[in-house]
Amino acid sequence: MILPSYLLALKQDFLSATTSEYIGQLRLRIPADELQSLLTALKQRYEFDMLIDITCVDYLNYRGATDRFGLVYVLLGTESNERLIVRTYLNEPDLTVPSAVPLWESANWLEREVFDMFGIRFAGHPDLRRILLPPEFASFPLRKDYPLQGRGERHNFPVLTRESA
Amino acid sequence: MPLAPSELSPPQVDEAGLAEQDYLWTLNFGPQHPATHTTLRIVLKLDGERVVDAVPDIGYLHSGFEKIGEHLDYNQYVTVTDRMNYISPMANNVAWHHAVEALLGIEITPRCKYIRTIIAELARISDHLLCNGAVGLDVGAFTFFLYGFYQREVIYDIFEALCGARFTNSYTRTGGLMYDMTPLVIEKTRTFLRAFPKTLDDMERLLGRNRIFIDRTKGVGVLSKQEAISRGCTGPIARASGVTRDLRKDSPYLAYADLEFNVPCATEGDCYSRYLVRMAEIRESLKIVEQALENLPSGPVNVGVDERVALPDKKQVYQTIEGTITHFELVMLSRGFTVPNDEMYAAIEAPNGELGFYLAGDGSDRAYRARCRPPSFIHFATFPHLIRGHTLSDIVAVLGSLNIIAAELDR
User: Fold this and answer.
1) At a CB cut-off of 8 Å and minimum separation 6, what does B210 contact?
2) Pseudo-torsion of CA B234, B235, B238, B240, nearest 10°?
3) For the sheet containing B367-373, what is the strand order?
């Protein structure tokens, strides 16, 4: 694996960052407490000016996984045409990471969706509410301990009998 | 076991600010409104007819597509991708299997690449026709919409001859396609390529210099280049704002590296330039389809039996031992094809922008995580920024030019 020069320079500054590659796609793994400074450096010094996606993977049933949640940032440099995937791993009970909204405006709704589906909190987010599900929804449906066919919401439907209808 | 309610922070209410904005009207736009076209709701704060603020409220069509993706196998899930952006389902099919094949590390055959290019571009034409048609319809140009819709019907006919389904095609398969292209499809596509440019000229003449249309769209909903990048816009919306990016050129996939086409861009970033960029893209797509159709390579559409992902044809199954084994391995419930324990993000340039899938494989033939990066979701987040300061009637123009498809927005 031949790393591009910006990544070599980056690894000088972030000694705990590790790189991996899968079929030409570069991934950078960083501990959660250094995520904020790494993203800031990527945005300001290495010209990753577009945040394509934020998503999360719940590794509850994943073979060989040691951490519960993996948070994934897909970054793109519009001038350099470089793509980089930054991953960080989180464990319960501390599911809070700093928000990326000050860096990229597009993080706003993406972080709200991750919060909605996985319950990961983003410290410093301007408006961290549920986005796709109603505010009174009681669980985080894309977690692996949530079954495919709903739990909770259907049980609460009032039962209509012939007399009451 | 009773569920513990999640701890949600109550919305921050700024009492002083509310008193100051006492004279503002609150208006509900949607979720059932003819001009939203799909099911979405916007809570507007109005000062007379001027929009002071807009708060989008989405999720009405949320149906858990990503959760379903963890329970259907890689070939079954393609039927769900049809329902995401149902204006151009073929592009979604191509995007999904593009990501699956990237995860599996499969190189598809040249013929398959060209056919996928053709259908992706036909989907782009049909998507842009509807999007621009809807902008026209919303600002009062009904004829334009009908012209566009008639041509979409012709594209549906091509898809019907290709795979039997007009609307929800589910045409791609891992490592190949459902059917090969027949001479009838090629003939139909050629007829479309001959007849359509004339209609396109008519459409451009109808609206391109129409005074009412230009007054309604020019200078409305301006997105600067800086904002477009920061807000993650891709596709025609970013290109209308001067972001010269197109995945077909920047990281060529399928057959785009062999074909000649231009990427239309504009610098104004308003609704009118988004309309112009889409119209110009239709012409470029026609060029791509024509070139791909004339240079269509011969050969198989599915990858060979040694890849163990595509079902071999009957002759191979009955006459060769490899074919029999592959068929057996693929149809047995406990077998399927082998998937690496790794993760991949792959995206294509869909009509609306970058449509990507982040896939996590866990060795089984179902994705462990099937995240879709929907362009509509990212683009709709820019809406409050675009509409602030404009009038109520500009909402439909901005909403139409962003091409928000609620099924893709909510998934």
Assistant:
1) B141
2) 180
3) B343-350, B353-361, B367-373
Whether residue B360 and residue A57 make contact (CB cut-off 8 A), yes or no, is yes
Using DSSP's 3-state secondary structure scheme, residue A138 falls into coil
For residues B200 and B286, what is the distance between their CA atoms, to the nearest angstrom?
Answer: 11
For B45-106, the DSSP string reads EEETTEEEEEEEE--TT---HHHHHTTSBTTTTHHHHTTTSTTSHHHHHHHHHHHHHHHHTP
CA distance B302 to B281: 30
Say if B3 is an interface residue toward chain A (CB within 8 Å): yes
- Cα B357 to Cα B348: distance, rounded to the nearest angstrom: 9
Q: What tokens does B13 get?
A: 């209410």
Phi–psi pair at A5, nearest 5 degrees:
-65, -35
Mutation site for B-interface testing, chosen from A21, A60, A132 by largest number of B Cβ within 10 Å: A132
d(CA B379, CA B372): 14
List domains and CATH numbers for chain B: 5-57 (no CATH), 65-302+337-410 (1.10.645.10)
The CATH number for A5-156, chosen from 3.20.20.370, 3.90.960.10, 1.10.630.10, 3.30.460.80, is: 3.30.460.80
Q: Rounded to the nearest 5 degrees, what angle is found at the Cα of B47, between the Cα atoms of B45 and B52?
A: 50
* Interface size, chain A vs chain B, as Cβ–Cβ contacts under 8 Å: 116
The number of C-alpha atoms within 13 Å of A113 and in the hemisphere containing its C-beta is 26
Tens of pLDDT, residue by residue over A78-88, are 888 888 999 99
A23 touching B, CB under 8 A? yes
Which of B67, B105, B231 lies at the smallest CB-CB distance from A106? Answer: B231
Phi, psi torsion values for B47, nearest 5 degrees:
-110, 95
CB-side neighbour CA atoms (13 Å) of B33: 15
* Residue A20 in contact with partner chain B when CB distance is under 8 A: no
Reduce the DSSP state of residue B349 to 3 states and report it.
strand
What is the per-residue pLDDT across B222-232, written as a single tens digit (0 to 9) for each?
889 998 999 99
pTM of the model: 0.89
Whether ipTM exceeds 0.90: no
